Amino acid sequence: MKIEKANVIVTCPGRNFVTLKIYTDEGVYGLGDATLNGREKSVVSYLEDHVIPCLIGRDPANIEDIWQYLYKGAYWRRGPVTMSAIAAVDMALWDIKGKVLDTPVYNLLGGKSRQGVMVYAHANGSDIEETVDEVGRYLDKGYRAVRAQCGIPGVESVYGVSKNKESYEPAKKGLPPEDTWSTEKYLNHIPKLFEQLRDTYGDDPHFLHDCHHRLTPIEAGRVGKELEPFHLFWIEDCTPAELQESFRIIRQHTTTPLAVGEVFNSIWDAQLLISEMLIDYIRTSIVRGGGISHMKKIASFAEIYHVKTGFHGATDLSPVTMAAALHFDLSVNNFGIQERMPHQEIVSDVFSTAYSFDSGFMYPGDEPGLGVDIDEEKAKKYPYERAYLPVNRKEDGTLFNW
Ligand code: CS2
Ligand code: MG
Q1: Is 227 helix (H, G, I), strand (E, B) or coil?
Q2: Cα(348) to centroid of ligand 2, in Å?
Q3: Sign of torsion, CA 213 208 266 53?
Q4: Is 312 part of the annotated catalytic residue set?
Q5: Is 386 among the domain residues?
Q6: pTM of the model
Q7: Are residues 112 and 71 both part of a single domain?
């Protein structure tokens, strides 16, 4: 079997998605997600101009060799554009392998390690009362784990808090919007939210929180320590993680579990974090981390050091990544939790999926391959629209982490 052709589909049903479709000479095709929020076209070019020409004629069965060819063969290693492009190829090849062998991808990854994949929902509100009500709404829908984000008095727009609570979508059409941030106001407010959540819902539900890269290590230590009585499942991205050593300071000050890595793109971004056991959950998703093949290595490495997976699953990860993640989550032993931010209804006009949700768990389905398809005619109805994530400034105007 040989790779005969490949094309990249860019579509915007409510938000932009980039999808790679690889065809074999025997009529089987596979899909891979290459969406990089706010920088989509760079991955399109990387695939069309530099990767697809090298794929034609190769045997799609040799997934590892093709991965190494694209990684080592580029000479310029790593980075979100390169690794998203490689991830798309890798996902598509696993999809093809599953279809050729007539089995779901989780079977190729060692089979089921569990019956279902625990997912967490996103609840948010403009103040504590509204957020507590929103969390309750998700618990009523059967979720066992809920992420809670809440408006901060005196801060106009806060990461994770939407006007329309159901579908928080940070990418905005046009040029990047600007937010304003106050760490002081945030740090004083956020423990009150989780105190109220535990008082209202008791000890059982898992609560999570995303600090979205806003704190210094010592501030992260403070928030982690103050949240300890409310035993969170995790705090996420409490500090930007380029400086992996900085997590030593956070660890010295708190036992609140730490999750990090949605912006990472290879094992080298987390090597020290994992081997020194400075984190508890690795969040790098299949699309950011070079696909299933590289994420297998990250998960196996993490397993040795008691670190579990907790994959990113926001709306900018397409249904193809969601499917690949669910096959992966079902199969690895050190699975922790999976983020679930459901796509808008209109996305199912373009993508069809075999995965399902029931009582707080998701299931990848038993279709051969990844179990996702794309309708290219429908995709054409929604042309690309330039959109950006916000930028963030402190109250005095200093540019800050968003
Ligand atoms: C996030 C995302 O889901 C999360 O935890 O941090 O909302 C993130 O901001 C977006 O995926 C960025 O594209
Ligand atoms: Mg996050």
Answers
A1: helix
A2: 24
A3: negative
A4: no
A5: no
A6: 0.97
A7: no
